[in-house]
Amino acid sequence: MITKAYSSFFAELELNNTRDWFQANKSRYEKDVKAPFLALLKQIIDKIQAFDQEISTDPKAAVFRINRDIRFSKDKTPYSTLMKAGISPGGKRSELPGYYLGISSATIHIGGGMFGIDKDQLKKIRSSITSEHEVLADILNATDFKDRFGELKGEHAKRLAPDCKAMLEKAPFIANKQFYVMTEIPMADYLNSDVLSSVLMEYYNAVYPLNRYLKGLLI
Q1: C-alpha distances in angstroms, 154 versus 58, 175, 180?
Q2: For residues 93 and 54, which has the higher predicted lDDT (pLDDT)?
Q3: How far apart are CA 113 and CA 132, in angstroms?
Q4: What angle do CA 85, 3, 31 make, to 5 degrees?
Q5: At the N or C end, where does the chain have fewer CB atoms within 10 A?
Q6: How far apart are CA 91 and CA 61, in angstroms?
Q7: Which pLDDT does position 27 carry in this prediction?
Q8: Three-class SS of residue 42?
């Protein structure tokens, strides 16, 4: 269960993002943040497995480190101010479609699909769109999908091959270089609540058809 103590930890970390503060409060992090987040992930993974059996079953394999990689960043604060997880086949670094969860002091971030797509994968996806764009269009226009995520996100290519360019009017998503969705809901509504995993599953059920479509092209 995500509690007020979880929210308070990140609210304080946002104001004191230093190694000294974190080390002094590490026991709070382990008890009030990491443990309940892993417990929530376990609930979610068990439920997702009912329809997507290929995801990793280990919650620890899904969690991103709270330590930030600051080597190439202008922001030198050492810690993320939210817990993040990627639920996919092979864990968080998988190149296959998956499900995303991030929880900060005030916001729950929910998403899915594919963010990192290489050239060969993108070629397969665009080839499918060119030959049968209605399949992906039906997924993106489904009521559950639109109600929870609105529309597909991702960077757009500035240049397209002629066959792809010809599809732009019918299928504007053929210009996407990424195929993912992301939305946010307020954390305050679900503090100390047993229903959070069920609410999250409404979103993951809605994104599953997109994941299934993408995975079918790439495996």
Answers
A1: 28, 9, 6
A2: 54
A3: 19
A4: 70
A5: C
A6: 5
A7: 98
A8: helix
Is 99 in contact with 88 (CB distance < 8 Å)? yes
Question: Using CA atoms, how far apart are residues 66 and 99, in angstroms rounded to an integer?
Answer: 18
What are the tokens at 151?
């529309």
Take residue 163 and report the two structure tokens written for it.
């066959």
Residue with tokens 């960043």: 73
Pairing relationship of beta strands 179-186 and 107-114 according to DSSP bridges: antiparallel
d(CA 44, CA 5): 21
Give 57's DSSP letter: -
Question: What is the 8-class DSSP label of residue 191?
Answer: T
Structure confidence at residue 95 (pLDDT): 83
**C-beta separation of 38 from 59 below 8 A:** yes
Contact 14, 105 (CB under 8 A): yes
Cβ proximity of 172 and 157 under 8 Å: no
44-67 pLDDT per residue, tens: 999 999 999 999 889 999 999 999
